[in-house]
Model the fold of this input.
Amino acid sequence: MGKRRFGMVRKLPSGRFQASFMPPGGGARQTAPHTFKTKTDANRSLVEADISRGTWLDDRAASETFGNYARAILRDGPKIGVRWRKTCDRNLRLHLAPLIDLPLRELTASRVREWHAAALRGKGGRTSISQSYRFLRMVMNTAVREGIIARNPCQIPGAGTVRVAERPVATPAQVVALVEAINPRYRTAVLIAAWCGPGRPSTWPAGPADAGRRSPAGRGRAGTARLRAALMI
Done:
């Protein structure tokens, strides 16, 4: 058995070499994920390289399933709000189900890419899939910070961004047609809103009927209701 600075190398009955080491924080001896053809290769293995660079990874923690680790983050995360926690829990069941039973170490970039492509081909909405990807990325970022994996496998550009189609803007001709079609009472307000772009409360000044409405939000809702009624005439 050959001894090295960061652990041990021994020759197996098969003739190949195995590298192992004691975790810096204590615990059972861990072996490299594969054996080596030569003793030199074993000594140059990633086990030694990771420890010497100070980026030793916890192999036992990396065997934890993504589902259990993700649920723990949802449970313990101090900055995770109630609504986002419920959203992530739902997406974990509906969209991230194919990844739940995988050990963290097996969540590679190619596996994440395959999951994302399959999710887009499925029946799920794009917004939910985008939310699921952001949650997956957050979980794996935490695993990187905690020394469980070396690199976040979520590397798909734009996968966590929801692209919403730009709302169409009325043309001048459409604005004129609208003004001619609605109740004359609301024409000035529509023209001001179209050409000047003020908020609804500014467009609709409070009248006698609004005297009892104390909040700007209440006045805004009343103005919106009147505008909707006008557009239906």
